[in-house]
Amino acid sequence: MATLECIGLTKRYGSTEALDSVNLTIKPGKITGLLGPNGSGKTTLIKLANGLLTPTSGKVLICGFEPGIETKKIVSYLPERLNIPTWMTVTQLLNYYQDFFPDFDLARAKTMLSGLSIDENMRIKAMSKGTREKVQLIMVMSRRAKLYLLDEPIGGVDPATRDYILNTIIANYDPEASVVISTHLIQDVETVLDDVVFINQGRIVLRSTVDDIREKEGKSVDALFREVFRC
Amino acid sequence: MLRKLIKHEFKATARLIPLLFLIVLTMSVAVHFALKLYDINDLPVVLELLLALFMLLFGAALGAVFIVCIVVMVMRFKRNLLGDEGYLTMTLPVSLSSLIWAKIIVSVIWIVLAVIVDFIAVFIAYLTNSSIVDAFRDIWDILMRLSGGNAAVFIEGAVELIIVGLFSVVASCLNFYAALSIGHGFARGKMGFSVLFYFVLSTAASITRIVILAALGQSVFSVTASMFLFGAGAGVADAMSEWRIQMATLGGLSLVQAAVFYFLTWINLKKRLNLE
């Protein structure tokens, strides 16, 4: 069964079409890059999969179910924005995740936090932007989810933090789970991807494995992206 | 899950409100002793002015307790559901109803506690001030007379009034939530639309209440009128019957109002949520 399936998925905001009849299947055990320029529909698709938006038409299914309480139990979501309450301490945040997500692995989270020498008694608001983003990522990747939806996980951080984020994703996701990484920073993320989906103006323009692109097109995903989305 | 949501709601909102309660109670102790100074003759004018100012501040603090509770309640809803935290809250594996109810329950509890704290603060402040104590005694005598000297009648009336008051508080909280939820659905000027819809919804609710009460041959003044039936020598049974009808009507109207606002909140969060 597909982990994530979009069937004729369309989303309009007034007269603006953010997604236009998207058909997409993400299989378990793959890291898929959802790649496209700004405003292409990546975040809209991810929000629909999380139940944060309702489709105008079509449907999105997570392991065969429409977004709801049951899918939220198996989807771990890293949004583009910082979503963790900044008034909390790290300990309070750990308790919060443990309370609501049955698949949250507290030991894994504590190991990753201590690896970064993060004081669990520290308040989130007292941390730097980069550290906050790392804490948020640790929370997301400490869940043993079936689907990880990571929206622009490496945008707006320094190269060293980018490497940390990508290594954390690779090291901590369940091999039978699916990971969808949406980004427009292709070069950094290409090395971790199995599959890529190019999206532009709400439509899927290309679907391929990374290996196929390199073998058949003879170029990197980044180079192909620049070619496909040339202004 | 509702219990866990309520637990975390209290943790989130308990950073400021209990502190305010403590400040008000501390001020009430200070007012208690300050009032004793008033009994001293030939106080310097400056000291009298300072005492008067302090009394004013105490009065303001009593009101501020409610205002802060409401502000905390509104900001919490906005930040936790409609702001960046919404990306976490709205992806928790809990129902939307649970999220809304957790906020309502905690908001009502804080507002009820604010009322209790204010009562205690006034009691402490004026505990031994003879003129104030006499005033409280007079109010008690009136209430006893109004209930025909029957404690059971008084208790029943008080309980019904409290229940109707609680329904009214729930409806008021949901008025805010509905306005915020509707306003959030607009692409621009979310807060402006939220304020606008707050006034639109509360005005519509007030007008509806007046129209329905009038249709039932009652008015917002009927409650007071029924209370004076006691004093006018009407039988306790007749007066209590009238009182119960008033309370049932007002309570029912508040419940309907709350239900409508709840639906508006729920449907807008369900269908028109679009976190930035």
Unreliable spans of chain B? none
SS field, number of helical segments of chain A:
9
Number of strands of chain A: 9
Estimated structural class of chain B: mainly alpha
Biggest interface between chains: A-B, 26 and 26 residues
Q: Give the terminus-to-terminus CA distance of chain A.
A: 38 Å
| Major beta sheet summary of chain A | 6 strands, mixed
SSE arrangement of chain B, N to C: HHHHHHHHHH
End-to-end distance of chain B? 27 Å
Mean pLDDT of chain B: 86
Radius of gyration of chain A: 18 Å
Key phrases:
heterodimer, A: 231 residues, alpha/beta, six-stranded mixed sheet, three-stranded antiparallel sheet, 9 helices, 9 strands, globular, B: 276 residues, mainly alpha, 10 helices
Characterization of this structure:
- The complex is a heterodimer of chains A (231) and B (276).
- Chain A is of the alpha/beta class and 231 residues long.
- Chain A is built from nine helices and nine strands.
- The mean pLDDT of chain A is 91.
- Chain B has 276 residues and is mostly helical.
- Chain B has helices at 2-13, 17-38, 45-82, 86-89, 96-125, 130-146, 151-184, 190-215, 222-231, 236-271.
- In chain B, helix 1 (2-13) crosses helix 5 (96-125) and helix 2 runs parallel beside helix 5.
- The longest helix of chain B is centred in the N-terminal third of the chain and has 38 residues, at 45-82.
- The two termini of chain B are 27 Å apart.
- The model of chain B has no long low-confidence stretch (mean pLDDT 86).
- Chains A and B meet through helix 2 and helix 3 of A and helix 1 and helix 4 of B.
